[in-house]
Amino acid sequence: MNSLIIFAIFAMAAYVFQIFLGWQQLKDFNKTYTILRKLGRVAIGRKPGKIKSGTIVMFAVDENGRVLKASKMQGVTILARFQNMENFVGEDIHYFDKYNPLVRQENKLLQEAIEDARKVYLWHEAGIEQETNSSNSFLGLGFYANYLKLSIKQFFTKNKKRSSL
């Protein structure tokens, strides 16, 4: 009976400690978001981890799509905290796709989170405030068409810049 009580106390203490660390992680997220939000619009990308580490990236972006500041949080535990990504500062978020050498040098989960941030930014730029789920596919076609139109426009703008160099 005593061992059961000791185990229950230990389990409760571990649970309370986990809640405290999760709260600290949420506080770190809010602090980082507030700092980035003061600089400009914030594009957030995520790649949730089930067994592997989860990843969140945030980019403070100016009105032209240039990254002013970038941060990432990647880890398996609730001890993960945001770290700066200095090599993305000054880059154009429109070109953060899988072909960008800057993105390719990151690990696979971070690459997917960066591409998610780019996708969310492009959707917002196209005037799409929220993604639709698959059950709402008819409305999703209009949103997807706007997204596709913007992606094609960005593709031709990117190739036009390369050919003029």
UniProtKB/TrEMBL annotation:
Residues annotated as transmembrane: 6-23
Source domain of life: Bacteria
Keywords assigned: Membrane, Transmembrane, Transmembrane helix
Pfam families: GutM
Protein name per its UniProtKB record: Transcriptional regulator
Organism annotation: Streptococcus sanguinis
The organism's taxonomic lineage, starting at the top: Bacteria, Bacillati, Bacillota, Bacilli, Lactobacillales
